[in-house]
Specification:
- This protein is of the alpha/beta class.
- 33% of the residues lie in helices and 16% in strands.
- Helix 5 links the parallel strand 6 and strand 7.
- The longest helix has 19 residues.
- Bound molecules: manganese (II) ion (2 copies).
- The site of one manganese (II) ion (MN) has 6 residues, from loops.
Length: 313
């Protein structure tokens, strides 16, 4: 267990060395670990700006300042957990179905071995093959979906797969439990009055950003936890749920979102749920300012790892 932890600044200064997530060992191991951080450098399914393929690299570069003790959650991650940076899965630029097959095939052995994948995207379309890999071992799971968009559209130019349709496909494929799933943070201009009906008719519960403002974070966390219950749950975090003032580096920004502090508090509030996987997606470094979006994404991954560690105590 002890080899699967970060290099300390006493072994080598932070600025030195090859950049892996949090300075974890870069290995493809499946045994003796609790989590694997995995990059998916895919951006072939976006509807507006592209460049999310560089997200994993940007997140790794800023992650080296993360320290192993999470004081807010009172947990030393590597006192309870072992993990590694699995590197990036292969993608086939321009070919989403091939890429989907590879993502699922590379994640399946991790999930089968009981490892919790923590994935850095990539555009949001990658969550569908992630859920396929999860469901193969765990069956259909609950979903906590943070986003300013519902991503339950049907088609894009007559095609079934893009970064706005994954969760409709996942319900159709019976790899999600919509009755235990929740979508949080939706806002912005839409195409019609009934824009959110597609999600609710699939069985999802939606909490819009304006509802979040009325409820407050504590009540929102209670609502999420009531919805998930004891189900196995996958958490997907589209960085565009955060306000562009805090996360400008993304493809489809929407004003009026969470602050970075609220986003971190919200994730911490999920502690104790039965997590089977996580991702953070849609980081687009070309539009980032001073690396703040990547830094927030790195910290979101860090909070995910802390939630995994808390469940091991
Ligand atoms: Mn999304
Ligand atoms: Mn979005």
């Amino acid at each position: 267990m002890t080899e699967y932890k970060p290099i300390t600044p006493q072994q080598q200064p932070k600025f030195a060395g090859i950049k892996t997530f949090m300075r974890l060992p870069h290995l493809r191991a499946y045994r003796g670990i609790d989590f694997a951080v995995v990059g998916v450098p895919w951006d072939g399914a976006t509807s507006y700006r592209t460049g999310q393929r560089m997200g994993p690299d940007a997140i790794r570069r800023v992650s080296l300042t993360l320290r192993p003790y999470n004081l807010a959650l009172d947990v030393g991650i590597f006192e309870h957990c072992a993990g590694l940076d699995f590197g990036d899965v292969s993608v086939v630029p321009g070919y989403i179905e091939d890429t989907y097959d590879i993502i699922a095939a590379e994640l399946c052995p991790l999930v089968e071995a009981g490892v919790i994948p923590v994935i850095m995207g990539g555009d949001h379309s990658i969550t569908l093959p992630e859920l396929r890999a999860i469901a193969k071992t765990h069956g259909p799971v609950a979903l906590i979906h943070f986003d300013s968009h519902t991503d339950t559209n049907d088609q894009y130019f007559g095609r079934p797969y893009y970064h706005g349709s994954m969760f409709r496909r996942a319900v159709e494929e019976n790899i999600l439990l919509p009755a235990n799933s929740i979508q949080v943070g939706m806002r912005g201009s839409v195409y019609s009055k009934d824009a959110y009906d597609e999600s609710t008719s699939l069985g999802f519960k939606i909490v819009t950003m304006s509802a979040v403002r009325d409820l407050g974070l504590s009540r929102l966390i209670e609502i999420i936890k009531d919805r998930i219950g004891l189900s196995k749950v996958f958490v997907t975090f589209d960085i565009d749920v955060v306000d562009p003032a805090f996360a400008p580096g993304t493809g489809t920004p929407e004003v009026g979102g969470f602050t970075s502090a609220e986003a971190i508090d919200l994730i911490r509030g999920l502690k104790g749920l039965n997590f089977v996987g996580f991702d953070v997606v849609e980081v687009l470094p070309d539009y980032d300012v001073a690396g703040i979006t990547a830094l927030l994404a790195a910290n979101i991954v860090y909070e995910f790892l802390s939630l995994i560690a808390l469940n091991k105590i």
